[in-house]
């Protein structure tokens, strides 16, 4: 069972506002570089957006979470259960979950495509996926892979499962915490086709964190999930 966390709502709100400000600044920078004066466009524009996005969200998240922990006077290990007992069991369970959710998420993704088609709504891939599909540079693929497999799972699990979920849950809203953070997680990816499968993934990752009390478990499961999808895309196989 997940141990109690000392998260103060006002500091959580400050963390979210800081992240919102950082993401907004990133958007402003991208629009500025795409202006007529500079004239970046095409594939350069896509990669610029991706790089600035990862720095403004994932990069700044590490900085802001570190400040958040210092304000609570707690270390990373104690905050997120790095030193929780039965680490091997937690990681084994995470590996099983990471691969087990793949076929279910794929089925939900296909179902979402069918529903969007029935509603006459164009099913578009995530912008990050479109960027990867048009990439030919090995260095760019390597950068994308590191972000998708290592950086994004760590940041997103720390934020959604490690901080937001227990903050809401400990206020007496366990079910609301589970569903609200899972829906929020899916929503930030800004893609209708992946909304349902990502909500499902988030629900499973939250329950995994509850079971193991170690954030490394959902991070590993998330990382394996992303790795499988990354190598599928790199292989050139069709999506959906």
Describe the structure.
This protein has 240 residues and is mainly alpha-helical. The chain has one domain (9-234). It contains 9 helices and no strands. The longest helix is centred in the middle third of the chain and has 32 residues, at 87-118. The radius of gyration is 18 Å and the shape is globular.
Could you name the key traits of this structure?
mainly alpha; 0% strand; globular
Rg is 18 Å
Task: Please outline the major beta sheet.
Answer: none
The stretches of 5 or more residues where confidence is low (pLDDT under 50) are none
* Individual helix count: 9
Shape: globular
Average residue-wise pLDDT: 90
Q: Would you kindly provide a brief summary of this structure?
A:
This protein is mostly helical and 240 residues long. It has helices at 9-33, 42-72, 76-80, 87-118, 127-133, 138-169, 174-187, 192-212, 216-234. It has one domain (9-234).
Write the layout of secondary structure elements.
Elements: H1 9-33, H2 42-72, H3 76-80, H4 87-118, H5 127-133, H6 138-169, H7 174-187, H8 192-212, H9 216-234
């Amino acid at each position: 069972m997940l141990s109690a966390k000392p998260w103060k709502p006002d500091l959580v709100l400050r963390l979210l506002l800081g992240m919102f400000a950082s993401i907004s600044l990133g958007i402003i920078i991208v629009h500025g570089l795409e202006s007529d004066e500079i004239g970046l466009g095409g594939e350069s524009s896509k990669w610029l957006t991706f790089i600035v996005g990862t720095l403004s969200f994932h990069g700044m998240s590490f900085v802001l979470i570190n400040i958040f922990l210092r304000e609570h006077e707690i270390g990373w290990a104690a905050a997120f259960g790095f030193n929780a007992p039965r680490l091997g069991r937690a990681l084994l369970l995470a590996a099983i979950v990471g691969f087990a959710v793949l076929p279910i998420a794929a089925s939900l993704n296909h179902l979402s495509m069918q529903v969007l088609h029935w509603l006459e709504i164009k099913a578009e891939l995530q912008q990050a996926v479109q960027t990867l599909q048009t990439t030919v540079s090995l260095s760019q693929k390597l950068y994308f892979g590191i972000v998708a497999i290592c950086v994004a799972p760590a940041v997103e699990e720390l934020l959604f499962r490690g901080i937001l979920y227990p903050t809401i849950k400990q206020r007496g809203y366990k079910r609301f915490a589970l569903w609200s953070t899972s829906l929020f997680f899916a929503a930030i990816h800004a893609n209708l086709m992946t909304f349902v499968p990502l909500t499902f993934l988030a629900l499973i990752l939250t329950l995994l964190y509850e079971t193991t009390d170690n954030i490394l478990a959902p991070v590993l499961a998330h990382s394996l999930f992303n790795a499988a999808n990354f190598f599928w895309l790199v292989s050139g196989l069709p999506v959906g």
